[in-house]
Specification:
This protein is mainly alpha-helical. The chain contains six helices and two strands. It has a two-stranded antiparallel ribbon.
């Protein structure tokens, strides 16, 4: 389709990637503002959001999975979790039959705070998305999932990073 109109896939990819980079910048700025609003370091706020989002999806995180999600060492993640737990932002529970497995849960207030902060944006996004038919949004969701799978595969392959000269 793009080739038939004289537009190459590479040109479209570049435009889409630029839009996604802009979106990523906006997401990073929102995360920074959320952290400041909570009075937390940005990494701590990112961890709180990851824990709350996973819990909301019904797939709560373990400390090891959180460590992967926020790109911290296990030691740094332990220090981060100690800070968040001491502040009441998260709890560590042992819900699994294997009592060694730790599950991370958001503190009682954290979902309320996240809803308070992100609620106005969620309503704006819902309004913007309401202009598109559900089929289009499903295809877009699938497209973004494909992009994420492709990037995940690239990042997990050994030797995908060029060597420095």
């Amino acid at each position: 389709m793009g080739e038939a109109t004289g537009e190459g896939v590479a040109a479209r990819r570049e435009r889409l990637m630029e839009e996604l980079r802009i979106y990523g910048g906006h997401y990073a700025e929102l995360s920074r503002r959320f952290a400041a609003w909570l009075g937390l370091h940005s990494t701590d706020a990112t961890a709180v959001l990851e824990i709350a989002a996973a819990e909301e999806r019904g797939t709560p995180l373990s400390p090891a999975r959180l460590s992967e999600r926020v790109s911290l060492s296990t030691g740094a993640t332990t220090a981060l979790l100690n800070r968040l737990e001491a502040a009441g932002h998260i709890t560590r529970t042992r819900e699994h039959s294997d009592r060694r497995v730790v599950t991370l849960r958001g503190g009682a207030h954290i979902q309320e705070r996240a809803d308070e902060f992100f609620g106005p944006l969620a309503r704006r996004l819902d309004a913007a998305m309401s202009h598109y038919p559900p089929e289009f949004l499903e295809r877009f969701e699938s497209f973004v999932a494909d992009l994420n799978s492709t990037m995940d595969a690239h990042l997990t392959e050994p030797d995908t990073t060029p060597r420095r000269p």
